[in-house]
Structure formats: C-alpha cells, structure tokens
Design brief:
Elements (H helix, E strand, L loop, with lengths): L3 H13 L29 H17 L3 H13 L6 H50 L27
Helix pairs in contact: 2-3, 2-4, 3-4
Length: 161
C-alpha cells in the first residue's frame, strides 16, 4: 500500500505535468453494466396509459381507426354515448379482467413462496415461547384473571366539563 507521501507526490506530478489535461484527475473508469435491468420509466400517468391501452385494444380487436378509437374512449370517459361506447366498455372490462387474472396469479405465487417462511417463523416463535415458559417467564403481562388488553391502572379518568 503506498504511503501518503507517495500519493501526494503522484498528485503533484499530475498537477504540474502540462502534458496531462486538467480533467485527468477527474476521470474515472467506465462503469460495468448493471446485471439487473433498470425499471422502464413511463412518461405518462396511469390514466393516460389506460386510455392508450383502450385505444390500442379498440384498434387491434375491432378495426377502429386511431381517431375513432380515441374519440370513443374520451366519450366513454366523459359519460357520453356514441356508436362505440359499448365496444370501449367491453374492452375496458376485458382489460380489467386480464389484469386481475395476472395479479391473482402473481399473488398466489407470492403466497406459495412465502408459506415456508411463515411456517419457519411460526416454528421459531413456538420454540421461543417454550423456552421462555421453561425459564419461568410469563409471556403475557398483567395479573392472572385479567384480560391482556385491560390496563393494570384501571379505567382512564373521565374529563370534567
């Protein structure tokens, strides 16, 4: 490991060396690419994304033009009735059902993945409870015969008017 004197000499040499630009001390190696891809950033809000999705579904599934699909979605959003209001409503329900199905599958997979963790935590807490009882500790505070939620100091004082 270089000493502080050696490091200071190297800095002085870099600063006084006119063949090296002033940016030489500020450069850094190019970072390695992140192995985890970045989350894509959506440039519009959720409401705009929902509109775009419905427009895209109306174009793809029903052959509407982009202009007609946009007008149908805007009219449905404002509560106006048009020729394509039923199509827009049906596509919104279908998109919602598909999203709910995907979310349900993800939640079920999450619950299955978490089940071993919950079982291990329950087993560990049972062992802790058994160890505390064996050591003579009472797990719940308070006096015997009194509910755990009841204050040992009695009811709170009433406010005087």
């Amino acid at each position: 490991m270089p000493s502080s004197e050696e490091i200071l000499e190297q800095i002085d040499a870099a600063v006084t060396d006119w063949t090296v630009s002033g940016d030489a001390m500020r450069c850094r190696p190019t970072p390695e690419p992140d192995p985890i891809p970045a989350v894509p950033v959506v440039s519009y809000t959720g409401r705009e994304a929902a509109r775009a999705l419905l427009v895209r579904r109306l174009i793809d599934n029903h052959g509407l033009t982009r202009f007609t699909a946009r007008r149908a979605v805007a009219a449905a959003e404002q509560g106006r009735t048009t020729r394509h209001t039923d199509l827009a409503s049906a596509e919104a329900r279908a998109a919602t059902a598909e999203a709910a199905e995907h979310i349900g599958r993800a939640m079920a997979a999450f619950a299955r993945a978490l089940q071993p963790v919950a079982q291990a935590a329950a087993a560990t807490l049972r062992q802790l409870d058994d160890a505390l009882r064996a050591a003579g500790h009472r797990c719940l505070g308070g006096k015997p015969g009194r509910p755990a939620w009841q204050s040992p100091y009695g009811p709170p004082p009433r406010r005087k008017r």
